[in-house]
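Entry:
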Amino acid sequence: RSSTHIRAQGRVDAPQASSTMARRYDSHTTTFSPEGRLYQVEYAMEAISHAGAAVGVRTDHGVVLAAEKKILSKLLETGTSSEKMHKLDDHLGVAVAGINSDANILINSARLTAQRYLMTYQEPVPMEQLVQTLCDQKQGYTQYGGLRPFGVSFLFGGWDKNCGFQLYQSDPSGNYAGWMATAIGANATAAQAILKTEYKEGMTLLEAKQLATKVLKQTMDSTKLEAEKVEMSEVGWVNAETKENVEYRVLQTKELTALCDEANAEAEAKAAAGKK
């Protein structure tokens, strides 16, 4: 046999070699691949990209969190609980994208941390400190054997006396960052592109709600946005004039309906103008 024929027999196509390499190193969260990647963490982030979208917008007057509601059966008894929005403390709320059962564990841990801080120091926990504590817990699940990463990303919106209103995003790796406006979940890249174009400093809280609704309208599959498919909450001043107390509040169906109708009307007007 010629040397060329022997070399051809031993050659493996690059895509096949890459997939073989991934299978070899993706069964453990604690094992790096030769490229320096942790595949299980990447797979957790990929799972979040298929979850319902969540959007956060920060203003000088408050923080707005909005999310796509996936559970839409009319036979389901939802009660007063929320699928995507959760209150961590009076000054702090969170929006979820990913596996809800994983999120519940971390949310309960965050609530406990907040109450321990309040009991010890007699003041609300600083927001970044709480986010960092939660992200340390998430990072631990990427470093020890026998554990898998939490398949959930969070958007934290809240206020503290040190930095005012803040918006943070965290992912399964334990990384977190502060944002003026961001999105996670399905079509997050398209949502962030809209936010980059539409977000303006000095927005009012109402304008932030309208922007969050518009982004959800663009990223969701349905042609018409309905209040039943959206959850939204805000962290803002109880009295905007005195600026004394901050509260977390979930928007009711009436408010959501008005925002959705406005977003639908704007989209229809834009489509009609495009046809002309």
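The mean pLDDT is 87.
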